[in-house]
Design a protein that fits this description.
The structure is a homodimer of 570-residue chains. Chain A folds into 3 domains: 255 residues, Thiamin diphosphate (ThDP)-binding fold, Pyr/PP domains (Rossmann fold, 3-Layer(aba) Sandwich); 163 residues, Thiamin diphosphate (ThDP)-binding fold, Pyr/PP domains (Rossmann fold), CATH 3.40.50; 126 residues, Rossmann fold. Chain A contains 24 helices and 23 strands. By secondary structure, chain A is of the alpha/beta class. In chain A, the strands form 6 sheets. In chain A, strands 12-11-13-14-16-15-21 form a 7-stranded mixed beta sheet, with helices on both faces. Chain A has a 5-stranded parallel beta sheet with strand order 2-3-4-8-7, with helices on both faces. Chain A has a 5-stranded mixed beta sheet with strand order 18-20-19-22-23, sandwiched between helices. At the A-B interface, α6, α7, α8, α9 and α10 of A face α6, α7, α8, α9 and α10 of B.
């Protein structure tokens, strides 16, 4: 769509602004229909973002978007409308705020709960420098549960600065928002307990509410008033919006239309669906099985489990640390918690994985979804560090199934495994037979009499290895393939028995600290040569997974070239 | 001291219990005077712990100690009095709760804020199993600021179980407790704002207060009442105690007597003192310098900085994640934040290091204190993972100074370095000249014409290498030594120029993912042989640092043996 100038917006009447909102909403819907992305959350915040741009002066004033998935209207209003159809495409606009993309994006986000802390940091620096712009944190009610928010609120008195916190309350954090903090907000908007504002006042926030947050005639004066109130203190503006506003299907199915992604490929299975099926089957037989999620019941495949086993299913909101410790606590009492979470979000629970789960050697199973390059959501969502940050934690077993069938087998084996287990897997992939397996054992998929063995981890990399092997055999050459289905403990018996001089590791993870380093450590000073494909030491932006994997180091071409070089040496 | 039986305690009158409290207090003081440990926090909670043991039935009932440093009275009352003088000694009692040590310790802790989540997990499992014991989380007002607590409180309604949260409010979290949450508590105990109980009620907690928490005649009935109230809902019992109670010096100097540690050795310097001096000097010249801490101003050496630059000094309470994001926010506005924190506590901010600081490539300097084996505090405090969890983060520079002088030089260089920097260092060590250095460059300390080069990181390991080299030269052999003062970026120019066939790395870190792996990755398939000393894949318990380092893999003896083996091979 056309770029709308700040001057046009600032001078527009409410009816004109409403018209602009319709243009924006259409552009968002049409773009997401093609590019994928976050739909309902952006449809719900069109008026709020337009009002913020009308009342504040960006980029002089600064706005931090919590998580950042709801920034589309902001992008459209900050000179990026003409490029908006490149959204989430490689080389195009990011679906999240990016400082390198525009001066209007003052802080990059992607995970929940950072906005208030970041806004406070920006405001504290402003004060020290004697500057005077305004700083806004825009946060959804789901993120507002995250512990980081309370750490930030706790420090308002200490920091002695002024920011505006806008809580966009649509009642959802992908899954419906749960918990006491959200009850505080709900009781305020329904007028049930106006005294709840004490919670915010206690932390130094002046509370203001707009309960028809898709109505500009209410929003604009409220924002003007909030801006005035900012002269004296921090302000929390509670804005109630409707997720999916303007599109009836999105309004009625906000969880299903939160993120609109690529469809699974032909013959592909969702790993999450397999997780749900296996956990239900396990729970049927074993009363110790419980499932835990941090606000992503559906996308992790747990809807049916939650329906069938409500007492053994825990959605604790966007609280990844708490979920880990809760699992550890349950495990001390003999339960078998399965904690399903995306790879990058598990980074939030790093300390708790180490201390609460692994140091106590408790049987908690981490189901690490969206591992490897996840794609269009970009650098904050690429699951390329999990092998690196899990590989050095004592007591932890790390599994990397080669397909959905093997994933099922590992889940089943995990139920009777007496220690912490992490299983990392991508969104979707190939089905496969469920054959029994032994924890900690790799698998030789193809032996070879040649001097080259490929050790590949996970579906993307094993498929690359298979295709390269097939191509090589077409020209009379051969390589073997090992399925590295466990990174930890390392299968030293199998590795020690491989006769090949050349070992090539392939992994959908950063090169530093992953499978390649583990295999090379084992073979050090043995006379074997170890070569590794994995991601270089860089953050990986948004794009299509296959294209990004190739660009950052993992592809058939790279493997083919590497093997070609070895053959050329004889 | 003698073991006091549960029967004796249960049948004792208040005067008899007071007498027991005096015995306990004397034993704690005398033991800590010899063994080191947490003094004031334990002196303050003697009555509270005695009252809990009187009113509840441990180990049938379960108590989770937040952080766990205040568990001494509990250990003395649970059959471990006769071993108490082994506290924090290798093979002796841990200074923290340990499930493997006693059935009375139901959950291991060490870092802040996990107690409520763990207690909820234990209670949820109890309910699922149809059992009926009580679950208590005992938490200090300092830890109560941590975001994890609010994640746990947020889920009370969801989990629909019953626990007792005892908040031990002594106004201190090592440094004085700061922030809005503590203000809520303070205004309750002073009667200023009784309506503050709404904050807790909103989350589903019944609030009860005991404002003379060192007086058993108030404590005991309050605990009985809390136990009754637990039948209907979760209860928060706010107990005000005096840190250091009973010892006037401890009462008046609670921060200095929070932890009583070993004295620095002859000629040793505290790295933290150097940090404070350098930051003050830098801040004098450069208005962009700010210092951030999570409640440990004194032990990190920042007291003088806070006195001299109060507007540029931020203690945000035990909120490690928030502190990181706050730094990132300030850095986007051109400030130069130095965030000082212990190595293991930085694990809490892992996701924020990756996304907020490094993905945005912001000039935040992490001053990572107590790196390597820290000693008697045990496994939750050993800083042996930081090289592993920092080494794979893109954009991050990782420095490991060889002594206090080099630490100063890196701090100075950091002030004009345009990217994220982590400097890891132990508590105390040797002074040394402050010579200019280049970021990313290692240093050849001793070249050699022999075939063996040692690459050592950090003071402990360089000292080991130096002593081994001296000993070898005494018998006519020689080795070279490289000071690996930067792990990242790796100094490929220097490493590429080393002619030796054998390279030995020595590091005060886990072997997986540290210096050894980085050096071996560089030398892969080069014909060089790389051997590494570092810590095996295990958690390291409490004890004296030198003894533990030796036992877990890093010592002169191990290095000597390794080199001996190489010489034997010719």
């Amino acid at each position: 769509m056309r770029n709308i100038s700040d001057a046009e917006l600032k001078s527009a009447s409410v009816p004109q602004l409403n018209h602009i909102c319709e243009e924006l909403r259409t552009e968002i819907f049409d773009t997401v229909s093609v590019c994928g992305g976050h739909l309902s959350s952006n449809l719900g915040t069109v008026e709020l973002t337009v009002a913020l741009h009308k009342v504040f002066d960006f980029p002089r004033d600064k706005i931090v978007f919590d998580v950042g998935h709801q920034c589309y209207t902001h992008k459209l209003l900050s000179g990026r409308a003409d490029r908006f159809r490149t959204l989430r495409q490689e080389g195009g606009l990011s679906g999240f705020p990016k400082r390198e993309e525009s001066d209007y994006d003052c802080y990059d986000t992607g995970h929940a709960g950072t906005s208030v802390s970041a806004a406070l940091g920006i405001a504290a620096a402003r004060d020290l420098k004697g500057e005077t712009f305004e700083v806004i944190a825009l946060i959804g009610d789901g993120s507002f549960n995250n512990g980081l928010i309370f750490e930030a609120l706790n420090s308002l008195h200490i920091l002695n600065t002024r920011i505006l916190i806008v809580v966009n309350d649509n009642g959802l954090s992908i899954s419906p928002t749960v918990g006491g903090t959200h009850d505080v907000l709900s009781e305020l908007k329904t007028g049930m307990r106006p005294e709840n504002i004490a919670l915010f006042e206690q932390y130094g926030l002046k509370y203001m509410g707009v309960y028809n947050g898709n109505d500009l005639s209410e929003l604009l004066p409220a924002l003007e008033e909030a801006k005035k109130a900012l002269r004296d203190s921090c302000v929390l503006l509670h804005v109630v919006t409707k997720k999916g506003q303007g599109y009836p299907f999105c309004e009625s199915e906000p969880e299903a239309t939160h993120g609109v992604g690529p469809k699974s490929g032909e013959g592909e299975r969702e790993y999450s669906a397999a997780l749900g099926e296996e956990l239900c089957a396990l729970a049927e037989r074993d009363p110790r099985i419980v499932a835990v999620t941090a606000a992503m019941t559906d996308s992790l495949g747990l809807r049916e489990f939650f329906r069938r086993f409500p007492r053994r299913a825990f959605d604790v909101g966007i609280c990844e640390e708490h979920a880990s410790v809760l699992c550890a606590g349950m495990a001390t009492q003999g339960m078998r918690p399965y904690y399903a979470i995306y790879s990058t979000f598990l980074q939030r629970a790093f300390d708790e994985i180490i201390h609460d789960v692994c140091a106590q050697n408790l049987p908690v199973t981490f189901c690490v979804d969206r591992a490897g390059i996840a794609g269009p959501d970009g650098q904050t969502h690429q699951g390329i560090f999990d092998l690196s940050y899990l590989s050095f934690i004592p007591n932890l077993t790390v599994a990397i199934p080669k397909n959905v069938g093997e994933f099922r087998a590992i889940l089943r084996a995990g139920a009777s495994f007496d220690g912490p287990l992490a299983i990392r897997y991508p969104r979707a992939g190939l089905d496969g037979p469920i054959s029994p397996l032994e924890i900690g054992k790799m698998e030789i998929l193809h032996s070879t009499t040649s001097d080259i063995m490929i050790i590949a981890a996970g579906e993307r990399c094993i498929c690359i290895a298979e295709r390269v092997r097939t191509a090589l055999r077409g020209s009379g050459k051969d390589v073997g393939i090992v399925n590295a289905r466990f990174l930890k403990p390392l299968d030293e018996a199998l590795l020690g028995g491989l006769p090949q001089k050349y070992v090539i590791t392939v992994e959908d993870n950063a090169l530093i600290g992953g499978l390649g380093d583990a295999v090379a450590r084992f073979y050090r000073n043995s006379g074997k040569e170890v070569y590794s494909l994995g991601y270089r030491d860089e953050f990986i932006p948004h794009g299509q997974p296959k294209s990004l994997a190739k660009r950052f180091g993992v592809s058939e071409e790279a493997l083919f070239a590497l093997i070609g070089g070895l053959y050329a040496r004889g």
